[in-house]
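Quarterly update from the structural biology core.
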Amino acid sequence: MSRVLAALASHAQEEPDGLALTGDRIALTWAELAQAVAFAVQWLEPHLLKTAPGAPVAIALDNGPAWVVLDLALLALGRPSLPLPPFFTAEQRGHALTDAGAGMLVRLARPGEHGAAFIAAEPVAAESLSLPPGLLHNGVAKITYTSGSTGRPKGVCLSLAQMEDVAEALVDVLGRETAKVHMAVLPLGVLLENVAGLYPTLLAGGRYHAPSLRSLGFGQGSRPDISRLCAAVAAARATSLILVPEILREMLQWMGDTGIGLPSLGFIAVGGAKTPPSLIAAARAAGLPVYEGYGLSECASVVALNMPERDRPGSVGRPLPNLTLTVRADGELVVGPHPFLGYVGEPAAKGPWRTGDLGAIDDDGFVSISGRRSNLLITAFGRNVAPEWVESELLAQPEIGQALVFGEGARALCAVLVPSAAAIGPTALDAAVERANAGLPDYARVGRWQASRPFGTGPDELTGNGRPRRDVLRAAHQDFIESEG
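Predicted structure, tokenized:
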């Protein structure tokens, strides 16, 4: 049986009136959550009879208690789930449904729609899909598609054991007392929030608060209305969050502008992209307990994490106890012992997983990430440079909000920079680049730069986790990048 469902049953018996799950319009005790999951199972069962055995069920809902209840119901039914992130384009969503051979789509019901039901106060409908079966791996419990750097994402097949191993390891290293009130900020359709936020909170007996992304002011992109987000954190008295660096940066700026603190927070995990050590230091100075981590979808979202008693800024922490981490001779990180099941439609994954990330492990076991192997630049002088390394130095400067570095085959690196504020002009940016260069060897210094509008204002410029898509932004700035200045 699922360890998460076993924990739910245990909490429902031992503390039936304790709050377990809250959202915009509903609060469920442990007993009520168990009843809601049982009701969702009963509602889903006749709909599943119309689908092929084992066909995945896609969930296309905003964050909220209904999403959580349906996810748990699918665990109880042993039916693979296919979370659809809300930031997916129509093309990406269609690709995921077709690639995985989804048998059913659970979505928000239309007014008066036949067969709809209220799941945790949300009107939802089950839409049967006539799609050919997907080539899935035995034992798959969840299929996650990440937008990554391309428009046609791959489906990562994860087993229940793999996801729950990660969730249980997080509870073990952070302690059950950390699980008080965890608030979802990232979409539940993103594996990181699902496996590292929801499941550990349920295992440890905390309260999971899932406000709708709409209520936090999220639009079509990855950025919320930061004032609404911070007000929601304060109102919920949230004790833990999972954030991407850009949201952390905006939260910190809001606190500085308003003079308002968020004292209820006891643990903030930040990941999804490289986080400058200066941002973590500034956040901690402002009273935000921020700890950087690292993970991949293929490893069920979390591989390593800093934490209060084992923390080294500049690293992404030590590996979780259920995993092994080694470094190949070329610097690539390898995670073992058991990989994910494999990608949809591809051969089963075997042996430890080569991550494609470049990094190192120090004598104390702390892991540092220098960049993606696929992003590695080779300059005209034959020097290898991970652009993320240079970008982290640029982003450590307060004047620079976003940065991308290019220079494949060039005599010198170039950078596309977004000022952190509209009032910051060329002179200030030039000084910021000089300071960044002072901490870099000659071959990795930025020789020229160009200011840009914020990344993400154009189509497909950011992934769902807020990471810049290099290929899209390179095309947008091609003339500057290919010129020699």
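The chain has two domains: 1-372, 376-482.
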